[in-house]
Design brief:
The protein is mostly helical. The chain is built from 2 helices and no strands.
Length: about 180
């Protein structure tokens, strides 16, 4: 009977010890799963933040590209206007030279001479206006070129930021892939 009693007691204690070990193992498994879920949540938050940042950078990049295109058109327009002024200046200078030569020709009739003098006077006045326009257009062109250079620099900076973000995301993806293995 003593043996039977020991046998019953041993069955009572041994399974209890087994249950304790099983509960401990389950608890460790749950803790490991909980830690992994927390890490996944952290990774998801980091990835979401990076994706949002990338999207913002892309919008800024598109806006900056539009600015560069707008300023580039402004530069082209300024160059076109300056070229037109310079061309008109050359034409008027050539006409002035012809009229002055005709005026200096002693064979001109007095009425022709008066018309030539009036024409020379108008051409000189117009040349002064053209020279003023040329200076303004040169200033406008220089300002537009400077603005274009500034806008291109901003665009380059945004492209660099996007490149850095891309490298960061690639690094994160490689690290994430290494952790999953």
């Amino acid at each position: 009977m003593y043996r039977l009693f020991l046998l019953v007691l041993s069955f009572l204690f041994f399974p209890f010890a087994g249950f304790c070990q099983s509960t401990s193992a389950d608890s460790q498994t749950l803790q490991a799963l909980l830690a992994e879920v927390r890490q996944l949540r952290k990774d998801l938050q980091t990835t979401t933040a990076a994706a949002q940042r990338a999207q913002i950078l892309l919008y800024r990049l598109q806006a900056q590209e539009a600015n560069v295109a707008r300023v580039s058109r402004r530069v082209d327009e300024a160059k076109t206007r300056l070229a037109a002024s310079q061309n008109e200046h050359r034409v008027m200078t050539a006409e002035l030279k012809r009229n002055e030569e005709a005026l200096n020709d002693s064979a001109s009739a007095p009425t022709d001479r008066k018309q030539l003098e009036d024409s020379v006077s108008r051409i000189k006045t117009r040349l002064e206006q053209i020279e003023g326009e040329e200076q303004q257009r040169q200033t406008t062109e220089i300002e537009a070129e400077n603005e274009l250079q500034s806008e291109r620099l901003k665009l380059t900076e945004l492209q660099d930021q996007l490149d850095r973000l891309q490298k960061t995301l690639e690094t994160m993806a490689q690290q994430g892939g290494g952790n999953a293995r």
